[in-house]
Amino acid sequence: xxxxxxxxxxxxxxxxxxxxxxxxxxxxxxxxxxxxxxxxxxxxxxxxxxxxxxxxxxxxxxxxxxxxxxxxxxxxxxxxxxxxxxxxxxxxxxxxxxxxxxxxxxxxxxxxxxxxxxxxxxxxxxxxxxxxxxxxxxxxxxxxxxxxxxxxxxxxxxxxxxxxxxxxxxxxxxxxxxxxxxxxxxxxxxxxxxxxxxxxxxxxxxxxxxxxxxxxxxxxxxxxxxxxxxxxxxxxxxxxxxxxxxxxxxxxxxxxxxxxxxxxxxxxxxxxxxxxxxxxxxxxxxxxxxxxxxxxxxxxxxxxxxxxxxxxxxxxxxxxxxxxxxxxxxxxxxxxxxxxxxxxxxxxxxxxxxxxxxxxxxxxxxxxxxxxxxxxxxxxxxxxxxxxxxxxxxxxxxxxxxxxxxxxxxxxxxxxxxxxxxxxxxxxxxxxxxxxxxxxxxxxxxxxxxxxxxxxxxxxxxxxxxxxxxxxxxxxxxxxxxxxxxxxxxxx
Length: 492
Description:
- The protein is α/β, with parallel strands linked by helices.
- Helix content is about 40%, strand content about 20%.
- It contains 15 helices and 20 strands.
- The strands form five sheets. A seven-stranded mixed β-sheet has the order 14-15-16-13-12-17-18, sandwiched between helices.
- Helix 8 links the parallel strand 10 (about 240) and strand 11.
- Pfam families: Aldedh.
- One of its GO terms (molecular function) is oxidoreductase activity, acting on the aldehyde or oxo group of donors, NAD or NADP as acceptor.
């Protein structure tokens, strides 16, 4: 059992989870800070390179037996883990809110709630074999004429390193761990350094559910060494990473040298193309809710609004009014919508982008000033209007509650502006002409497009074009991501 029982923030020093044991870290502990109060949440373990390698070695040793475990038994472990998470739901959500700065509603519904749902989703067994049509072969150098049967069989990749993001310490790790384990892989998790304690609670839940030793390992660290060791270790066959494009590029280089498989969910600068005939209420609500509920720290947010001129002024006005109605403050208060960003350094980064926008000629129509709180890393929801495509605030991912608005004249220009980006994760189209909305959506270079909605279908593939990533997950696509395809061929 871990030193911290998960009963709440500010308790004993956490231990690493390696090979089924809770292990003291070689390099001591570091503080996990509450972004809302700047107080101590707990002490996270600082794993050494040797301990990360030991975690990968334990996963390698466990891989053979786990991969041969019947899928129904693996699924049952995930189902029991979901039950444990539900039983411990409130303390887990309290911890998630404390270390991530999420509001109570977000911590419960979008973090722990989605995490449990993802374990439940992959407790469903899906076929790993796909029969292929028989093929008639003529006689030749490889034998006589024959009818050849074939199966495409999905096999686990092996040992998977999962490096997770700080913006959701439950849904993001669960979305990696659950499908990877369901497919028969074993896992080493390197959580985000800002809020790693929730991932140890996830390990507790899996331990209580009966996951065998070594199948899941969790190693944290505030320095780069732990993450580097989790990527370049020879025992690791695949790296699944969610985070910045810059870090993803460095991980990909290491993976390329070792021919490791990759799943990369990287940055985003989502375009929301709003046509003159759009339902403005829907567009404003969708844009506003999506960029505000994680304090803008969400890669799927439509933070780059591309508005047709006929509706531009009204859209800017309504977005500004919406931003002004958002309650910023203590995430534990029921009425709060926008809590803090993750750290003081990130707050400074977001504020620097707002100032850069001013210098570039953007018009600040909402926000732009630091909220008047003595403690906490707060940023006011900010709207920058009259932007142009060449501005850095339009081209670069800010990852905070900042939205930029760019005008356009006709459909072709709107599409061109939306595609004029290094990123391509999720874009959005709002139009009363459904045929046009679908036509435009198909021309957007993004892994996903919301048409008159910011809603998600949790079986739809998720991932990015361009510098927004490599590969797809969610639903059955996550099972594909954590597997290799093997062909079995035989004479009929």
